[in-house]
Amino acid sequence: MTEEVPKPDYPELQEAGLGEFLELDAHGITYGDTYYIKKSHARNAALHFHELVHVCQYQNLTQQGFIKRYIQEIQYFGYDESPLEKMAYQLEDHYRKSHIINVEKTVRENL
């Protein structure tokens, strides 16, 4: 848990058009097999689930593959429409509705 989620501080990301993403007031963020959640959202199980979907995405794409794809998707689609985020939000919605789903298999099949 953290007061603020850590975000990468690289001017190259701003120059690549990721300013909107970097300025989001995110409640959580994932880096590889580690995710950070704001203390104010510590009890939000759906948010933890969302970030764990990103962990599965990282595992399937590798760290370099995930970062490259994530940046390209944000640049092309924007945050809300990027396929990796849409997948995480859709699976989070399944979780909220108590639908049983094999997350690892679903992520792997939809990448």
Rounded radius of gyration (Å): 14 Å
Order of helices and strands: HHEEHHHH
Structural class: mainly alpha
Strand content: 5-15%
Give the % helix. Answer: 55-70%
Query: Tell me about the biggest sheet?
Result: 2 strands, antiparallel
Mean pLDDT: 91
What shape does the CA trace take?
Answer: globular
End-to-end gap: 29 Å
| Strand tally | 2
- Which oligomerization state do the chains in this entry correspond to? single chain
Strand order of the largest sheet: 1-2
What is the number of helices? 6
Low-confidence stretches are: none
Comma- or semicolon-separated keywords:
mainly alpha; 6 helices; globular; 111 residues; single chain; two-stranded antiparallel sheet
Brief digest:
58% of the residues lie in helices and 7% in strands. By secondary structure, the protein is mainly alpha-helical. The N and C termini lie far apart (29 Å).
